[in-house]
Design goal:
Largest sheet of chain B: 5 strands, mixed
CATH topology of chain D: 3 helical TM bundles of succinate and fumarate reductases
Radius of gyration of chain B: 20 Å
Largest sheet of chain D: none
Bound molecules: flavin-adenine dinucleotide, protoporphyrin IX containing FE, iron/sulfur cluster, FE3-S4 cluster, FE2/S2 (inorganic) cluster
Protein name (chain D): Succinate dehydrogenase cytochrome b556 subunit
Structural class of chain D: mainly alpha
Oligomer: heterotetramer
Strand content of chain D: under 5%
Number of strands of chain B: 7
Shape of chain D: elongated
CATH superfamily of chain D: Fumarate reductase/succinate dehydrogenase, transmembrane subunit
Helix content of chain D: over 70%
Distance between the termini of chain B: 60 Å
Shape of chain B: elongated
Strand content of chain B: 5-15%
Family (chain D): Belongs to the cytochrome b560 family.
Cofactor (chain D): heme
Number of strands of chain D: 0
Distance between the termini of chain D: 47 Å
Strand order of the largest sheet of chain B: 2-1-5-3-4
Keywords (chain D): Heme, Iron, Membrane, Metal-binding, Transmembrane, Transmembrane helix
Number of domains of chain D: 1
Subunit structure (chain D): Part of an enzyme complex containing four subunits: a flavoprotein, an iron-sulfur protein, plus two membrane-anchoring proteins, SdhC and SdhD. The complex can form homotrimers.
CATH class of chain D: Mainly Alpha
Number of helices of chain B: 10
Number of helices of chain D: 4
Radius of gyration of chain D: 18 Å
Chain lengths: ~110, ~240, ~575, ~110
């Protein structure tokens, strides 16, 4: 089910995410001390192009990566194939991207509008 | 041997299994146990074998849930107490009892371009080849495959993905890719990059873990992934 | 099951068996036959996964220079066969092997072991005067058959797998072959496949002996069919025994399988029941003597011993250093270990084991038989080896002549049309195959064992007239008893017990021929050793046996060997050529 | 009736862990995105949620997810190392090593968090 192109996309996004995940985890470990609050998060990210790019890339990568991953599982464990499978992948990808974009927007530029 | 009677459960089609009591002997393989049942207890039992020495790869079955070459598996190695359960090889259509249809396995072997692509003929001299060269060592690593389908049966990707070419066929493709005499490079890379190709492999390694000849299809498939990836960047397709 | 229930199927070229002979025939037929010719390959097992070519260990004999010549290979073959080979066939074998090995490497894609300089590595089997045997480790057959199998699978020939040929069906006047009756083993249904040409490559297989090496699917079906079809069979007394078969008890299929020749070559010792080496009592070369000599040595020691606990003799390697043995004979040591024996450090019980059948259908150098439309190649065909086959000449023979059969059929097929089968013969063959289904079911195995013990005792490594006569009586008893053993026919799909019955039927029929031919030959040549006639007789007067079925009775006659290329005492090697090119070990 | 398929060997276990972690992450991700979006759209709700996560059970769940992310990432890096770096034999050790490392990191995080 997985062609070379999907495979490459999955690996490239994975490699891309590796440093992002480490960064994200580091921030989390730092941030979580003394509890988490909206103000704190927003204080850090609000208006930052850097954070926007950081999480934007993350979201794009994870949408692609996760969609391809779930496609594989849906096929191998769920027996889904053909157009239904393609539809599922695109649906998940689009969904993840939309939700993720909304969140990224919210924590970076959202408040400034 | 601590027991003189074996309790042998043989799975027979979807309708269930039969249990047989088989006398135990010192030198006794799983194939001998199955043969004893057919020759002495139930003449209708179906199974397949030919060489009886691990060369033809036609006797593989599931033994206690593990795919094995039965002619080379000593029964003491698999007994659980004095019990053993034997079933038809996984991931292939069952013809009857323990005999499976191996055609899908071989169809995929051919689909993976698992066949020599040459330009030389019988009128040309035989190509000199350095056996120590890196490519030849790589090609030799997988060459002793007996196409027993044990790896194919062990692989969960095969189980879940009907198109997946499977470890043995892909290993053959990798061998050919490294064979200095083979001219089918483009065709092979193409064949292993399709929807059933090497990229479906999750490196779960059951193929390598269970191959009775200690071959390593998993690494061969990794080789194909590298080679196709390199090609991907080169050609950008 | 009635004659109307037989499914009819037509093709142009039909090939029986997928050993070296069958697969090469398919490839060559595809290359030679006119465009659009339909080629069908039918086999008792799965394509390429049955038969003995796949089990070839040692390798493939071919003269590739370095001092070795086709002439030398030919002389070794004639000497090895004790002047009984059909010289034209032996010559063609040696000459074409050179082409075939290049074809295997260049077109089929085999890879054989190389020397440091990149050229093919060759070694010498016993009985050869040059390093001649090409090999891939000690799994040469797997490499050859796997590559051939791929080619054939990819070539688009029609596949009839697990189809057992049960009868050759001639035309009404009996002059030509119309088709072959088969059982589709997976369903148990009968199928008559008509073809313009048929090649039989079912590989003989002397599995009527207590100890035997061939794969389980080989039970002399082809020769039994040929005999019934009235074809002459030659050299039927010639059964080659390999000296070292594994002995692991009669309840395991491992018993009889080969422990490779190289073990003795490397210095392995044979030890008898009293713990002594004995081979030097029989031959100056000791354990390194040729197969027939070592087999007789072991057999003689076994006869001297009356300890029921120990049947065979032991092969011991440990004095060479267990680690060295484990490394040098990795596959063999692992195989023994899988069966519970320690070859590297301990000793393993061995026994001579029936290995190869030199006898077979009389054919010409193009594989044609006396029956139009029928071609025979490989172990089913007689003549190329005479009384003894050299190690390495077996797979050369099947691949060379399989290819020739394919080419010959490819050319002949245009001149033939499909023929009408003799329905009476068809009905009789059907009747014969379903006979056991009409009888009360019973076990087949004890009769098979009875035949195997009998052949081993009376028509085995050493023979006498009295013994072989006892053998004949015994075979008749087994044969008759078999006709009272039925098979439960309620489900014929993949019914192995039915096929066990049919296997034993073929084995009984051919055992009788072997025994009668053995009685006829009143001298000792190669694989045939008569204690009552230990001398080989004058080479000039060499004759081969020919057996045929006449009015239902097997008749054996003798025909003089035609020395068409070289006469006994002469050689085709140039004057002054050295006796051997192999460095003394 | 059928004997269970037996595949107890390290690489297969590594595969299963990787798949299950990936699956769980993918299922959790939309929730995570939704929660984060609340940070702006409804800060009060977000803070209420964040407070709720200090409750132990929620914390363990959260720890689990970060753990899964670490496991999945190292598993994925392990996999890609196996695929792209042509080493053979000691892959099992590698698999084990990756799992151990991820566990270490996750534990570290857990201790920090508490
Ligand atoms: C263990 C072993 C080691 C050997 N080592 C060597 C060696 O090192 N060098 C060497 O030169 N030779 C060796 N030989 C001999 C060599 O294998 C044979 O001489 C040769 O391969 C025979 O080839 P074949 O094509 O005639 O028959 P096979 O390869 O035996 O093929 C026979 C085919 O016919 C099929 N068949 C049988 N009956 C029927 C039926 N009724 N209907 C349809 N199909 C049928 C079989 O299933 C099989 O596919 C060895 C043999 C054995 C057993
Ligand atoms: C640095 C981070 C990550 C890396 C290195 C990584 C790596 C990988 C790799 C290599 C695969 C392919 C597995 C295979 O073919 O067997 C994969 C599969 C997958 N990944 Fe990730 N991944 C990462 C992050 C994520 C994230 C954040 C998610 C959440 C959506 C995710 C979800 C999945 C899923 C669902 C699969 C499919 C699993 C399967 O096929 O078995 N991954 N990942
Ligand atoms: S790779 Fe191993 S397990 Fe797979 S078919 Fe070949 S020999 Fe059998
Ligand atoms: S078991 Fe299957 S998933 Fe890959 S590593 Fe082997 S082919
Ligand atoms: S019977 Fe040939 S491999 Fe087991």
């Amino acid at each position: 089910m997985l062609t070379l192109r999907l495979y490459m996309l999955q690996r490239i996004t994975a490699l891309l995410m590796a440093p992002l995940v480490l960064g994200h985890l580091a921030v989390m470990i730092y941030a979580i001390q003394g509890g988490l609050s909206a103000a704190e998060i927003l204080g850090r990210t609000q208006g930052s192009v850097l954070w926007f790019l950081f999480y934007g890339t993350f979201v794009l990568a994870v949408a692609i990566h996760g969609a391809i991953g779930l496609r594989t599982i849906a096929h191998e464990w769920g027996g889904l194939r053909g157009p239904a499978l393609e539809l599922l992948m695109w649906g998940i990808g689009a969904g993840l991207l939309a939700l993720g974009a909304r969140a990224v927007w919210a924590v970076t530029f959202g408040g400034m509008l | 041997m601590t027991t003189d009677v074996l309790k042998v459960t043989i799975e027979r089609g979807p309708d269930g299994a039969d249990v047989f009591e088989v006398p135990a002997y010192d030198s006794q393989t799983v194939l001998d146990v199955v043969s004893w049942v057919q020759q002495n207890a139930d003449p209708t039992l179906s199974y397949r074998f030919a060489c009886r020495v691990g060369m033809c790869g036609s006797c593989a079955m599931m033994v206690n849930g593990v795919p094995r070459w039965t002619c080379r598996t000593h029964i003491s190695k698999v007994l659980d107490g004095n019990e053993v359960t034997i079933g038809p090889l996984r991931n292939l259509p069952v013809i009857k009892d323990l005999a499976v249809d191996m055609d899908p396995f071989f169809d995929k072997w051919v689909a993976a371009e698992g066949v020599h692509h040459g330009t030389l003929t019988r009128d040309d001299p035989i190509a000199p080849i350095d056996e120590e060269s890196e490519a030849r060592v790589e090609a030799n690593a997988g060459i002793e495959c007996i196409n027993c389908s044990v790896c194919y049966a062990s692989c969960d990707t095969v189980a879940g993905n009907a198109d997946y070419l499977g470890p043995a066929a892909l290993q053959r493709a990798w061998t050919l890719l490294n064979d200095a005499k083979d001219e089918g490079r483009a065709a092979i890379l193409d064949a292993v990059s399709g929807s059933g190709g090497c990229h479906n492999c999750h490196s779960m390694g059951s193929c390598t873990a269970y191959c009775p000849n200690e071959l390593d299809p998993m690494s061969a498939i990794a080789g194909l992934k590298r080679e196709t990836a390199r090609n991907f960047f080169r050609k950008g397709s | 099951m009635r004659i109307q229930d037989i499914e009819r199927h037509d093709t142009d070229i039909l090939i029986l068996g997928t050993g070296g002979a069958g697969l090469f025939a398919a490839l060559h037929a595809k290359q030679t036959a006119p465009e659009g010719t339909k080629i069908t390959i039918a086999v008792k097992g799965l394509i390429g996964k049955c038969g003995c070519t796949r089990m070839v260990q040692g390798g493939y004999n071919v003269a590739l220079g370095g001092g070795d010549t086709v002439e030398r290979h030919f002389m070794d073959t004639i000497n090895g066969g004790k002047w009984l080979p059909n010289q034209d066939m032996a010559w063609r074998l040696c000459e074409q092997a050179v082409v075939r090995i290049r074809e295997l490497e260049n077109e089929v894609g085999c890879f054989f072991d190389r020397n440091k300089d990149g050229s093919l590595h060759q070694k010498a089997f016993a009985g050869q005067t040059a390093d001649r045997t090409v090999h891939k480790g000690d799994l040469t057959g797997i490499e050859i058959i796997n590559r051939l199998m791929e080619k054939v699978l990819a070539s688009g020939v029609e596949k009839l797998q697990e189809h057992r040929a049960v009868g050759l069906i001639p035309t009404k006047d009996g002059s030509a072959l119309a088709g072959v009756l088969m059982i589709d083993m997976r369903t148990g249904k009968f199928r008559l496949v008509r073809a313009k040409t048929v090649m039989m490559g079912t590989g003989g297989g002397p599995t009527m002996y207590k100890y035997h090496t061939p794969s389980g699917d080989k039970t002399m079906d082809g020769l039994a069919m040929a005999l019934r079809a009235g074809l002459p069979l030659r050299d039927m007394e010639m059964v080659q025994f390999h000296p070292t078969g594994l002995l692991a008890g009669d309840h395991t299929r491992m018993t009889g399988t080969v422990l490779e020749e190289g073990l003795r070559g490397a210095g392995g010792q044979l030890i008898n029941h009293s713990g002594a080496r004995f081979m030097f009592d029989y031959d100056g070369k000791g354990e390194r003597a040729t197969r027939d000599v070592v087999s007789r040595g072991i057999y003689a020691e076994m006869r001297k011993n009356n300890n029921p606990e120990q049947e065979g003799v032991f092969i011991s390697m440990s004095h060479l250093g267990p680690e060295w043995v484990a490394q040098k004979f990795k596959g063999m040591v692992k195989r023994c270990a899988d069966s519970g024996f320690d070859l590297a450090a301990g000793k393993v019980e061995v026994v001579p084991t029936a290995h190869y059948f030199m006898g077979g259908v009389v054919v010409d150098v193009d594989t044609r038989t006396a029956m139009e439309g029928l071609y025979v190649a490989g172990e089913d065909a007689g003549g190329a080896h005479g009384s003894n086959r050299l190690g390495g000449n077996g797979v050369a023979n099947s691949t060379v002549y399989g290819g020739i059969a394919g080419d010959t059929m490819g050319r002949d097929v245009a001149g033939f049309t499909l023929r009408e089968p003799d329905e009476a013969v068809l009905a009789a063959e059907l009747e014969r195959a379903i006979y056991p289904l009409t009888k009360k079911p019973d076990l087949v195995l004890p009769l098979r064992k009875q035949l195997q013990d009998l052949m081993w005792e009376e028509v085995g490594v050493m023979r006498t007239e009295a013994g072989m006569k006892r053998g004949l009586t015994g075979i008749a008893e087994v044969s008759d008893a078999l006709m009272d053993v039925g098979v439960d026919g309620s489900n014929l799909a993949f019914n192995l017990t039915w096929h066990d019955w049919l296997n034993l039927r073929s084995l009984c029929d051919i055992s009788e021929v072997i025994t009668k031919a053995g009685i006829t030959r009143e001298n000792s040549r190669g694989a045939h050793f008569r204690e009552d006639y230990p001398e080989p007789g004058a080479m000039e007067d060499s004759a081969f046996t020919v057996a045929r079925l006449e009015s239902g009775v097997v008749q054996v006659t003798e025909e003089p060997v035609q020395f068409t290329i070289v006469r006994p005492g002469e050689t085709v090697l140039p004057e002054g050529a050295p006796e051997t090119l192999v460095a003394a070990q | 009736m059928r004997a269970a398929i037996n595949r107890a060997h390290p690489l297969w276990v590594a595969f299963l862990i990787h798949r299950l972690s990936g699956l769980t992450l993918a299922l959790f991700l939309p929730v995570h995105f939704w929660v984060m979006a609340q940070a702006l759209i409804n800060p009060a709700r977000f803070d209420a949620f964040a407070a709720a996560t200090s409750v132990n059970a929620a914390k363990v769940a959260e720890f689990g997810l970060v753990f899964l992310l670490a496991v999945h990432m190292f598993g994925g890096l392990r996999l890609m190392a196996m695929e792209f770096l042509p080493w053979s034999g000691p892959q099992k050790t590698l698999a084990a090593g990756a799992a151990a490392l991820s566990f270490l990191i996750a534990t570290l995080f857990f201790m920090q968090a508490i």
